[in-house]
Amino acid sequence: MDLLREFFSRLRDLEALLTWGGYPVLMAIIFAETGLLVGFFLPGDSLLVTAGVLVNAGMINPFQLGNFENLLLMNATLMTMAIVGDAVGFSIGRRAGPKIFNREQSFFFRKDYLIATKTFYERHGGKTIILARFMPFARTFAPVVAGVGQMEYRRFAMFNIAGGVLWVFSMTFLGYFLGKIFDAKQIERVVILIIIVSVLPVVIGAIRHRMAREQPVVGVVPLDPASQRAPKADKD
């Protein structure tokens, strides 16, 4: 319990969190955000970029490797966790089926995010598994929606591996090279900038969602029963 309390207290300071928890915390967060429905609030993008910055600075190096070798090891480890996480999410969706859309929304389960991801999936098909990696919240629910939609597992695995590799590689290498550009004394400012940039799309999306809900409604619009059904099968 004390460990969990310590984890959540440090979640607001990614640099402190990663220097405290290192590889185990990184692995746990990447897996939970992609594999567990309750992981939607975890800061995957900013965490990966921050990890790259800290690897360049030699602040996360449990095996005393060269910085670049350490970055490659981190990539292999976190790509594996991201891929396994999505596979678990897919399994949850396949086992739960359409009834998961009837589950009540709560702090730990955001039904609105799930339905929004389902709509995105029906528009973009299997590519959603790759695109959602770069979209906060959607990356948690996309594999679940694919599982509910009974996507062929071989197709899902192809998109899953491609998305996991691209996401982890792009974010950690971005952080690593940002760390080379900025002086070590500026790391904290770089991390803050990363967090702001990664959170900004979420804030904009939330504002747009609220504005759309506050639009005056003319007449009565019936509830679309399709929002409670399984997503259409992927034909891409």
From TrEMBL:
<dbReference type="GO" id="GO:0005886">
    <property type="term" value="C:plasma membrane"/>
</dbReference>
<feature type="transmembrane region" description="Helical">
    <location>
        <begin position="190"/>
        <end position="207"/>
    </location>
</feature>
<keyword id="KW-0472">Membrane</keyword>
<protein>
    <submittedName>
        <fullName>Membrane protein</fullName>
    </submittedName>
</protein>
<keyword id="KW-0812">Transmembrane</keyword>
<dbReference type="InterPro" id="IPR032816">
    <property type="entry name" value="VTT_dom"/>
</dbReference>
<comment type="similarity">
    <text>Belongs to the DedA family.</text>
</comment>
<keyword id="KW-1003">Cell membrane</keyword>
<dbReference type="Pfam" id="PF09335">
    <property type="entry name" value="VTT_dom"/>
</dbReference>
<feature type="transmembrane region" description="Helical">
    <location>
        <begin position="156"/>
        <end position="178"/>
    </location>
</feature>
<feature type="domain" description="VTT">
    <location>
        <begin position="42"/>
        <end position="176"/>
    </location>
</feature>
<feature type="transmembrane region" description="Helical">
    <location>
        <begin position="20"/>
        <end position="42"/>
    </location>
</feature>
<keyword id="KW-1133">Transmembrane helix</keyword>
<dbReference type="InterPro" id="IPR032818">
    <property type="entry name" value="DedA-like"/>
</dbReference>
<feature type="transmembrane region" description="Helical">
    <location>
        <begin position="71"/>
        <end position="93"/>
    </location>
</feature>
